[in-house]
């Protein structure tokens, strides 16, 4: 009996020691993990841009770039556009103080946005890993090349994001801009790279009568049988990213052979209403035919529509976007208009793909619609303006921007996708 009692006491002591050891290990792990997951601070400044000569080096982080060989597709297949937004404690490549090319209405931090959670997410495809954009590798790949982004202000937004990331490796020189600074070109002298944005919101010839605030003095007139000025420059580009977009939802009159054939949303004009779908399909069809049948074989990425996130109204009727985190799949449905636009885009892309395969040209779908749909938190909102509530009056009516993206912001991930598409091709 004594021996049994001793054994029981020894077992109890060992068990207690083991339990204490296990608890201490768990506590240590919790402390380590919580320390590791602390987000690095992002500088929020209201002092404006830093002069170019004082730009700081890119933020330091562990494993910021991943070599393309580290991709691990399952079943040999990777769909870059099916995935989820996952936490990314490394944060963005740049801040508003380390990039010189952010336009004022996308500089959300400078304009007073205080929450920074929207900066700490990255897009992760479900079937493989998506490497972070590698600015050095991109510049090396594009040495002696010309890259163009053709489209509307969303395309310009994308270019600004790319410029911000690339500037952490090499600063560019602006070598051209039009009168309104909508079409621009930058040059990277070390790599002999030209990067252009070509303003063409309809892709076809358009007579537009509105100012930079969207105020119109007359109805847009589209010439659906005549492509826009971007075609005059097309032969100069080695790589092209091109897209239509929301401008087709504007009231417009459609012309072919200098004759009015219909309109969209033009009540009272005694013109046949044919809807924006007619014009959008015709414009994309002509655009993609031109690209795929051109003797100049540029590498083309065709981007799908970008949803907006206005709630309780539109941009001109009090709509706003004040969410601070991403949606998960199933939390939101695509709007009917965006679904219609995307269906037209996919139909026309499939036609173009058949032609491109016959003529030996590369045209890829850049399908950013659904990953963008899940990011209602990444828009400037009221912070498209500088310090909109500086006087403390939060009842002030301020126009929201729930279409474009803060810089830095979710649109930076588009560059991860773009580079992976180029590398995998």
From TrEMBL:
GO terms for molecular function: O-acetyltransferase activity. Residues 77-129 form the Trichome birefringence-like N-terminal domain. Belongs to the PC-esterase family. TBL subfamily. Residues 130-420 form the Trichome birefringence-like C-terminal domain. Its main location: membrane. Keywords: Membrane, Signal-anchor, Transmembrane, Transmembrane helix. It comes from Capsicum baccatum (Peruvian pepper). The chain crosses the membrane at residues 12-32. This is Protein trichome birefringence-like 25. It is a single-pass membrane protein. Signal peptide: none annotated. It is found in: Membrane. One of its GO terms (cellular component) is membrane.
């Amino acid at each position: 009996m004594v021996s049994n009692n001793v054994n029981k006491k020894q077992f109890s002591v060992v068990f207690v020691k083991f339990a204490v050891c296990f608890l201490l290990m768990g506590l240590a792990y919790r402390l380590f993990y919580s320390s590791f997951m602390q987000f690095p601070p992002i500088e929020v400044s209201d002092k404006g841009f830093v002069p170019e000569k004082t730009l700081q080096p890119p933020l330091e982080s562990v494993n910021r770039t991943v070599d393309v060989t580290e991709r691990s597709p399952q079943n040999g297949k990777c769909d870059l556009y099916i995935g989820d937004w996952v936490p990314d404690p490394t944060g963005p490549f740049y801040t508003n103080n380390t990039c010189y090319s952010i336009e004022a209405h996308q500089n959300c931090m400078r304009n007073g946005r205080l929450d920074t959670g929207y900066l700490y997410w990255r897009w992760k495809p479900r079937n493989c890993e998506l490497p972070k954009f590698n600015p050095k590798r991109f510049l090396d790949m594009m040495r002696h090349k010309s890259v163009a982004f053709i489209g509307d202000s969303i395309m310009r937004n994308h270019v600004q994001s790319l410029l911000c990331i690339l500037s952490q490796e090499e600063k560019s020189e602006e070598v051209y801009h039009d009168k309104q600074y909508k079409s621009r070109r930058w040059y990277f002298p070390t790599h002999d790279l030209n990067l252009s944005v070509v303003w063409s919101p309809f892709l076809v010839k358009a007579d537009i009568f509105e100012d930079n605030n969207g105020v119109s003095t007359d109805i847009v007139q589209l010439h659906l049988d005549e492509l826009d000025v971007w075609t005059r420059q097309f032969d100069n580009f080695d790589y092209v990213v091109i897209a239509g977009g929301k401008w087709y939802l504007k009231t417009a009159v459609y012309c072919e052979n200098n004759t009015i054939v219909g309109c969209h949303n033009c009540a009272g004009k005694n013109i046949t209403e044919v809807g924006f779908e007619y014009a959008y399909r015709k414009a994309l069809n002509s655009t993609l035919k031109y690209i795929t049948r051109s003797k100049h074989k540029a590498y083309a990425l065709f981007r799908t529509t970008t949803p907006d996130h206005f709630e309780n109204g539109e941009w001109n009727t009090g709509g706003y976007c004040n969410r601070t985190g991403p949606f998960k799949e199933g939390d939101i449905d695509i709007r009917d208009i965006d679904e219609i636009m995307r269906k037209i885009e996919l139909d026309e892309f499939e036609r173009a793909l058949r032609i491109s395969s016959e003529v030996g040209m590369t045209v890829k779908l850049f399908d950013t619609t659904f990953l963008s749909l899940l990011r209602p938190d990444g828009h400037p909102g009221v912070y498209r303006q500088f310090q909109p509530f500086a006087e403390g009056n939060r009842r002030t009516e301020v126009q929201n921007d729930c279409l474009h993206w803060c810089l830095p912001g979710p649109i930076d991930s588009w560059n991860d996708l773009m580079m992976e598409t180029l590398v995998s091709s």
